[in-house]
Amino acid sequence: MKASAETQMPRNFDFAEAEPRLYQWWLDQGHFKPERAPAEAEPFVISMPPPNVTGSLHIGHALFTALEDLMIRHERMRGKAALWLPGTDHAGIATQLQVEKMLRDEGTSREAVGYEEFLRRTWQWKEEQGGTIIRQLRRLGASCDWDRERFTLDDGLSDAVLQAFVTLWEQGLVYRGPRLVNWSPGLQTAVSDLEVETSEEEVTLYYFRYPVEGGGFLPVATTRPETILGDTAVALHPEDERYRHLIGRRALVPILERAIPVIGDAYVDREFGTGALKVTPAHDFNDYELARRHGLPLLNVLNKDASMKAAAGPYAGLDRYACRERLWRDMEAAGLTIKTEAYRTRIPRSQRGGEVVEPLMSTQWYVRIQPLAQKAIDAVRDGRIKIVPERFEKVYFHWLENIQDWCVSRQLWWGHRIPAWYREKDGDPQGEVYVGKDAPPGDGWVMERDVLDTWFSSGLWPFSTLGWPGETADMRRFYPTQVMETGHDILFFWVARMIMLGLWLTDEPPFHTVYLHGLVRAEGGAKFSKTLGNAIDPLTVVDRLGADPLRFTLITSGTPGNDCHLDETRLDHSFRFVNKIWQMTAFINMNLDGELELELPEAAELDLPSRWILSRLHRLIANVSHLFEIYQYGEAGNQILAFMWDELAPFYLEISKEALYGSSPAAKDRARRVLVHVQDCCLRLLHPFMPFMTEEAWRYLPHEGEALILAAWPTADQSWIDDSVEARMSHCLEAVREIRNARGEYKVDPGRRIQAIASVGAAAEDLASNQAILRRLCNVESLTLLDADAPEPAKAASIVVGDLTLSLPLAGMLDLAAERARLEGELGKLADGLERTRKMLANENFVNRARPDVVQRERDRLRELEAAQAQLEARLASLQA
RNA sequence: GGGCGAUUAGCUCAAUUGGCAGAGCGUCCGGUUUACACCCGGAAGGUUGUAAGUUCGAGUCUUACAUCGCCCACCA
Hints:
Layout: E1 2-3, H1 15-28, E2 43-47, H2 59-77, E3 81-85, E4 87-88, H3 92-105, H4 110-113, H5 115-139, E5 150-151, H6 155-170, E6 174-184, E7 189-191, E8 196-211, E9 217-222, E10 233-236, E11 250-252, E12 259-264, E13 276-279, H7 285-294, H8 320-333, E14 337-350, E15 358-367, H9 370-381, E16 386-388, H10 391-401, E17 406-407, E18 409-410, E19 420-425, E20 428-435, E21 446-447, E22 451-452, H11 454-458, H12 461-464, H13 473-478, E23 483-487, H14 491-506, E24 513-517, E25 520-521, H15 538-545, H16 547-556, E26 564-565, H17 568-590, E27 596-597, H18 608-629, H19 633-660, H20 665-686, H21 691-698, H22 723-745, E28 754-758, H23 762-769, H24 771-778, E29 780-785, E30 796-801, E31 804-809, H25 816-842, H26 844-849, H27 852-880
Parallel strand pairs: 2-3, 4-5, 10-12, 16-24, 23-24, 25-26, 28-29
Antiparallel strand pairs: 1-27, 6-7, 6-15, 8-9, 8-14, 10-13, 11-12, 15-17, 18-22, 19-20, 19-21, 28-31, 30-31
Helix pairs in contact: 1-21, 2-16, 9-10, 9-14, 15-16, 16-17, 17-19, 17-21, 18-19, 18-20, 18-22, 19-20, 19-24, 20-21, 22-23, 22-24, 23-24, 25-27
The structure holds one RNA strand.
């Protein structure tokens, strides 16, 4: 097969011009669509973790885009029907907060504009902002099937949410009831356990006296004095000698003088605080349990905005913290206080607003999660789902094994309304409850106002986006998906929920592999944040360097599951790598001449350097393919870079000039075919890392096919991999290095051509028959072989590599004393290696127990080192004489 | 309190069946060699956190410890 390439390759890759053009071209050609692959092709599907619809691109998005696009492009090149399904999340709380802030800036509020208007404004905001993040993902080169883009509040997805909720209800897995929940007073909604973050803080521990009826006091400590007003008991350890006589008596709530029982319970820690515990069942999770055991009443003293209720008596209407202060002052006045002290403890704060969350009694909707969790545990346990890196499986199991029922209702306006209806019965407006997609027949039904936790709808994402609950063609073709790639920080929030809901509702694991990436951090390990001003903005980087360097850097900077520290200097280096590849391609391109046969010549027709670079290339392809299989993309990228920058460019490209600039048409043809083959393979390997430049450069190489994005992923041809060829070439390159060193030491003008004379040695023949190596790499004009018995030239620098000795006659430049010193230095370096190798081989245990190939390698090394030593010594002796 | 991760060159990080510890940036020396100064050639720089253990052989496996970070957990 012959092919030609575009000519007149520009001097530089103009990413600013090329990136949008190439992206549009791929789109227009439909290359991102799985239908591009043959109908019988195996599917490969990734559901994109949907970013917040009104968000804008940060470095975390850039990382997942780089990784997922890499996987998708790789599998697409491997012939799969690759589908990367994009979309956005309505992000209930986050979006609602944004709109509320907007309203605040306008001097109004959510409550003031009302429910309908607020939703209208939110949708409007979504329409205005919704395209931003999608446009930004495109700039990075994301090869998503945009025709299948979804939004969690789309009709189809909303239907899936209703269906899922109703199904769980019908199966008895959804219930509604009053429970103590984590209440966010600022957001005025319940939040789930996961949305509460504890931070260790310095607070005050207040010690005070609890008056006991009939005289006496019980000393008690608390960090939240305002909850005293809601106490319904004081608890003691039943075996506490100090106080046990008080059990059964009644205590009086300070200021309010409400009488409450003194109870005994082994839960109380005698060592902590005063050893006596105030019990506030309505505002503390532990006390709630304690109260249940003892049949104590709940007394709610907090309103939903964290102001005090009427039950707080004189403090009613005060904010919780104002109440804390006022009550403590009053208690001081009443002589009930003992002392206060500084105390470090964990304070529960809302993941969103950061405000202190209050345990509060509230009626909420819950999913009975254990049955779902069990299936999710089993699926990972039996290997139907694999988590990469594996260590996260342990974390996953631990969470699922201790899981609590999931509070799925939120008192927000933006989200999926829970499909429940209430009707008044016996004076209770919610006396009758009905759950179903549509209102039941009959009058008087009012729909539930609460919405579902955002994670409920995103938990359905891998299948709701494909049309579930409909039995659509996409569901049949593309479900289950293959890989779920996301950050380890949302393993519980999202991944575990997808697995639970997926297994429960579709009876299939939604994906077979979970690949977790780490967080991108700033230099020094600090979290990126706008306030610190250390955020690397991916779009600024794209403007400055293009998308390819950013992608390559993100992928090669980290390993799976580990946080990575993004370093600006690496971005610059990646940019230079992109340029380097462009220049290499340009070099090949300008040395083409019309049509070229794409098949490689037979190995027997090729010279040593060509067979070497092909061996190295196919070894690289094998390594990279393996590394992709085990998700080691960073290492794969680094290996490609090392091959191109350290082997292909400085050695093979240089050596090939001999043929390209020479007079033999056959030699030129061979060199071109090897160069094109190697560069073509490299561009294919790199395409998933840096799609834009590789696609553009590929057009300037003779190739089959219309686009690199659809080109086949290279396969390693073992017949090219040849250890002996690599060993021979590496001896030659070793000689090159030594000659360069010698030239440097004798300050030989780099432009000056010199001669070399080789004594007989293993590499001598190779160097003599491949004169291009020395000529092109160290400016040795010609190498002559010396007869075995001929004397070596006297006025020459000596280069020793294994059993090969090269003499460089440097007439007039050589200083015999300096040469002796140089050779002695070389001998010194050899001695260390010799000693080490001899010691190893003298060790019988090593010789007998180590792998045979390892022993052989040491023997070969020893032989070479000894030969080199002998040569150096002989040379030195001749110089002394 | 439990669990996990990290600790390797001045800095940021690699090193996946245990087999001579690498790269980028920085530093030093030398170069406008017709693909590339967005480059090329050379050099210096390491007791792989500490202490033991397993092994012919340990950055890699085991144990303990130290420091840092993260996750989970109901001591007011």
